Amino acid sequence: MILQMDTLILGIESSCDETSASVIKNGRCILSNVISSQVDLHKKYGGVVPEIASRKHVELIIPVINQALEEAGVTLEDINAIGVTYGPGLVGALLVGLTAAKSIAFAADKPLIGVHHIEGHIAANYLQYPELEPPFICLVASGGHSHIVHVADYNKFEILGQTRDDAAGEAFDKISRAIGLGYPGGPLIDKYAAQGDSNAVKFPRVHFEDGSLDFSFSGLKTAVLNYLNRLEQTGEKVNIPDIAASFQQAVVDVLVKNTISAARMKNINKIALAGGVAANSQLRRDMKNMAEKQGITVMYPGLVLCTDNAAMIGCAAYFEYKNGKRSGMDLNAVPGLRLGY
User: CB within 8 A of 283, min separation 6: which ones?
Assistant: First the structure.
C-alpha cells in the first residue's frame, strides 16, 4: 500500500551492460527492480563492448522504466524524485540513462538526483538489511572497483583502501579468459574453484609495507599467466579447478585481511560487502568466518543486489533526497567519478 507520506524514488542505472529501473519506497522497500542484462550479448567478445552496450541501452531504457513503474503499481505522478547513475562507468552507457532521467524529470517536473555508482552498491545493503545504519565498513569489489570504504553516515564516505591497478573483478575476468573459462569470469571461477584445491599453487598475496590498505592484483594476474606459460612449455596438464581455486583464494585472502584491518582501525564491528565480487561464495564464507572470530558482524546483499541494478541507485537517491541534494539539468556523465567528489 502506498500512503500519502511515503517517499517514492524512480531509480535508473545504465553504467555498464545492465539496463535497469526500479521504484523504491522510503529508502528500504523495493516495489520493483527491473534488470535487462547484456551478458549473453557481450559473451562472445570476452567482455563488454562499450558501443554495443550503449546502443542496447537506447533500445531498452524506456521499456524497462515503463515496466518498473507498472510492476510497482505507480505512475510518474506518484514519484517524488528521479535518481540516476552519473558515474563512474562507460560514458556512452551513462549518457543513455542520464538523458532518459533528465527528460522524465523535466517533463514530469520532478527533482533530479545524480547518484555515484559506488554509493549505490553500498546502499544495496540497506535494502537487504532494513535495520542497518551507519557507521560500518564496506568492501566494494566489482569489475571496475575495489574500495574499502568507511561509511560514516548515509552521505559521508571515507576511502580507506583501493586498488592501485586491476580491480578484483577485472582480475577474475582476465584469469577466467586465460584458463579458457570465458566471460563473465567471477561466477565461472567460483564454480570451478569449488572442485579444486586452493593450496595447489602458491600464488602471491600483495601487502604494502607502509601499512596501506590498498590492493594490487596485477602481480597476481602476471603470476598466474607465467604459471600457465610454464605448463605449456613443459607440456604439463592444466588443472583448471586447482588454478581457479588457488587464484580465487589469493584474491579473497587480501580482500578479507585488509577489510578486517580497516574495521579494527576504525573500531567498528560491522562489515558489509557490495558489488559483483560480493557474490563470490569464498569471499562471503571467509569474510564471515574471520570477522566473527573478532566479534565483527558481516552482511552482504542478495545476489541480484550485488550486480548492477537500479534498486541500489533508488535507495542511494532516497538518502540524497532526504539530505536536500538536487541536481540540475546540466548534470553530465562523469566516467571517472571518484567517491566523495
Answer: 141, 252, 255, 256, 273, 277
Instruction: Give yes or no for a contact between 38 and 31, defined as CB atoms under 8 angstroms apart.
Output: no
Q: Are strands 136-141 and 146-153 parallel, antiparallel or unpaired?
A: antiparallel
Strand, helix or coil for residue 8: strand
Q: Which three cell numbers stand for residue 225?
A: 599467466
Is residue 263 helix, strand or coil?
helix
116 three-state secondary structure:
strand
Nearest to 291 by CA among 258, 318, 322, 315: 258
CA 88, CA 96: separation in Å to the nearest integer? 14
Pairing of strands 112-116, 81-87: parallel
Three-class secondary structure of residue 97 per DSSP? helix
- CA 197 – CA 245 distance, rounded (Å): 6
CATH superfamily for domain 134-301: ATPase, nucleotide binding domain (3.30.420.40)
Cell of 244: 581457479
- Grid coordinates representing 63 are 521499456
Q: How far apart are CA 142 and CA 217, in angstroms?
A: 13
User: For 181-225, how does the pLDDT look when each residue is reduced to its tens digit (9 = 90+)?
Assistant: 988 889 999 999 999 999 999 999 988 888 899 999 999 999 999
CATH 3.30.420.40 boundaries in the chain: 8-124+306-322, 134-301
Q: What do you get for the CA distance between the two ends of the chain, in Å?
A: 37
3-state SS assignment for residue 248:
helix
Q: Torsion-angle region of residue 267: left (phi > 0), alpha (psi -120 to 50) or beta? A: left
Nearest to 203 by CA among 180, 191, 221: 221
Between 9 and 209, the higher pLDDT residue: 9
Task: Mention the CATH class of domain 8-124+306-322.
Answer: alpha beta
The whole model's pTM is what?
0.93
- pLDDT at res. 34: 98
Residue type, 81: A
Q: Please say whether the beta carbons of 100 and 71 come within 8 A.
A: no
